[in-house]
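Supplementary notes for students who missed Thursday's class. We covered one full example, reproduced here. Read the sequence, then the structure, then the short commentary at the end.
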Amino acid sequence: MPGKPIPKNRDIILVASGDSRLPANRVCWPAQAALEEAVTRAFAALGRRVVRGHPVDAATRHGFIDGQARGIEVFRSIDPDAPLVVAEAVWQYTSHVLPGLTRHRGPILTLANWSGQWPGLVGLLNLNGSLTKAGIRYSSIWSEDFSDDFAREAIAQWLKTGAIRHDRSHVRAVTARTFGARFAADVRRGAALGAALRRDQAILGVFDEGCMGMYNAIVPDHLLHAMGLFKERLSQSALFAAMQRVPNETAQEHYAWLRQRGMRFTLGTDEATELTERQVLEGLKMYHAAVELAHGFGCAAIGIQYQQGLKDTCVASDLAEGLLNNPDRPPVRGANGLHLFAGRAVTHFNEVDECAGVDGLITDRVWRDLGLDPSNTLHDVRWGAPVSERGVDELVWVFEISGAAPASHFIGGYAGAVGERQPPMYFPLGGSTLKGVSKPGEIVWSRIYVEDDALHMDIGRGGVVRLSDEETRRRWAATTSQWPIMHAVLYGVSRDQLMTKHQANHIQVAYAPTAALARRALVRKASMARALGIAVNLCGDLEDSLDRHQAPKLRG
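Structure (token representation):
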């Protein structure tokens, strides 16, 4: 069990969860193999042997556990008391290994390479958040090559004690007295917004629950009901059917609206590898159909799973998602000719992450109550690296997601946005992204998660810095160049503090025009969440501002 020394005569068993998509597993396998070699060397330097718990498959040409049934089979042959490492250099489906981990009694160490190439850190954070929700004890570590003192000392600690303790001094539980008299009015207003939601109730439209093995992204119904929230369980087949009823002329009108706003699309003719106009129009039919269905079912927010099912049927949902999260979007008229959700965002939670759905709904209500633009999105916590340029001298995170990011977050808005084809290894039928560079400004970040059968929220302040075009291109090249990117600094939260505490692959972000308004928005949001029964943690420095990280003249 965690908390006990690992006997020196015990081998360390290593397993690797991967994607369910064969092309992704094959393309990403070399990075995983390099990670496993580095981990094996790190343990060997401490006198311990690492043994793979499942072989590399010659037929598939990779060594990932690539399905839930395969994971159950693998864990049947693993001693449940053995010390276990789950190593990740890629995006992984936690469902592949969760059944085995629920029965594993030995100490568990999750780890990932510190790299933006493939979403290994994203996969690690999803795995950790899922284990937390499941009540499975684990330790975690991350490193570029596991030769640094931070990683070596952490592994040595795990071998000696069966657990790793990281610094969480940046976290404090929010109570009625946390924000003091200065924010008393915002505390009261946030609580009133929470009481109103409980009283009036609202609906989350869920287009097929569960996506890519993200156990942590499913909120149990009884926790939602206590807040006045209820799921409308919708089918992606209904969404696809509704798309077929959208006239071509309507999709063309949406396309013309975007181009008039200055959005560009990188078009080609090869459906297999390039973005085509047909793909763009199909994505705009999805957008139109999603708005109609959200209105028809009375949904306050919706989430499209997309990745499994629809990926083999139609184009990616990313363009539709980004449009939905923006109050300024192509108008969708109802049967009476009036615009549906006029002047409003249709809050969308990417990859049907229900925790993000609750968060996005709260953000929408708080920001509109303050008279602020409620455009918000989730991003993957993809990677981060130090920067020393343009007045910035610290670690800057790469927040990056394929879908859901609204153009209102970008430098130049729609005129600064471009649509590019989704990578074929993930999205065989293509579809347009909504790509841009997030504008400099103050943000509030947060994450809702499940722990001990209760909802929790971590919330903090941050800023988006403006980096040089060269550095932005470098970061896109090191990650996924087709996706929207945010250069984020988190106030009072270090790299390792975020990694040890954050309970998801996703992080929710919303802008405020000034640091003062960002503080008020955070206080109202935290207070609304508390009124809904969510336990809230304030992470980092509430009082910091972007001016301390980049001078205004360098952000323009």
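Commentary. The chain is about 35% helix and 20% strand. The chain has two domains: 12-161, 181-555. If anything here is unclear, bring it to office hours.
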